[in-house]
Known about the structure:
Layout: H1 12-28, H2 31-34, H3 38-54, H4 65-93, E1 101-105, H5 111-119, E2 124-129, H6 132-141, E3 149-152, E4 168-173, E5 191-196, H7 200-208, H8 210-215, E6 219-222, E7 242-245, H9 250-256, E8 265-274, E9 286-289, E10 294-296, E11 299-306, E12 309-315, E13 332-334, E14 343-345, E15 352-354, E16 362-364
Parallel strand pairs: 1-2, 1-4, 2-3, 4-5, 12-15
Antiparallel strand pairs: 5-8, 6-8, 7-8, 9-11, 9-13, 10-11, 11-12, 13-16, 14-15
Amino acid sequence: MSQGLHASDKSNSKWLELQAQLARLPSRLPASAQSLAPQQIADQIRQLSNYYIHSPSAVSPWHEPWARHALFSYYHPLNLTRVWAAAERGRHLGFLNDLHHLYDLGSGSGAAAQALSLQQSWTSLELRDVSSAILEFALQVAELPSHTRHTTARLETRPQNLDDPRRSLAVLAHVLTENTEIPSWVFELEALMILEPSTRDDARRLQARRETLMAQGFHIWAPCPHAKPCPLLRDERDWCHDAIEYPAPPWWLDLEAHLPMKNQRLTFSYLLARKTPPPAPSSRPLLRVVGDVLAEKGKSRTLTCSDGDRAFLSWFPNRRQSPEPTCRRGDLLEWPSAPTNFEKRGQDERQEWRIGDADFPILSQLPDRNDSNR
């Protein structure tokens, strides 16, 4: 598939800087952590994982050095990459334009603030968390602007002096799984970014929040290419999530060799919302790819969401005269200007468009490992 105007704007410099920050992370840890062998850090990661498995509702043990080491050596770089990917989807649409103030709510290690600071500069930036221990550690380890401030407070506690709400963004990354409600004061802000795990339950719960946000005057910018009810909520087998290849630095590979979990591909679900409407699309419909490309007995197909409907795009690789589509999960596509030999098959949940040799312009695509050397 050819790349449209926004797709050609994939920012290699931002992708390379993300990789540079991932590579520098171990050098920012305290000396006590830098002296540990990969096996020792892996043991601490397993200890933290087991802590949450056996005590899922317990307070995070951020006062313990081993827990902070595990957080910043493992979970921080993964979440940094996920938030960067969601922000990159938004950047393709201009989502961050005219936003100057950032609130990272339930900030933990500050991964979300660090990722968004890679995308653009912020006039003010505040980390908010209930743990003063993790806030202080985040300011030491995460690569954040020098003017970053931090507040020990619960999510629902409204800041005494909100920076210009019309120019403010609140990000909640992996927070609503633990807290069922979005803080009411957040609805005063111009923009909201939410990331959750990519499990079926978490992703479907997040998509169900679209109605709440729209009732509060927000417009959904991404991933949804429309404002109609989510078609993936009609069938419990469906859920919407995105993915990015993880650009693992060398130190990570040494660490991962001692862990049972492998992270070549990171998945996440997200919503980007603003009070300002998104740019008006062209006369041609937009489609969001919400599935991987599947090979089925000589045919390839992928699930898309468009204008309140879900439908598969399918093609026969051996029959195409033009190059095979290169879309991936999460990409934003534009309907062809002059579709030829399209064939609509099925209806409702089985609806499928056989696209022949059609070319769908890609308006948003995340970089992959190959982009590192381009």
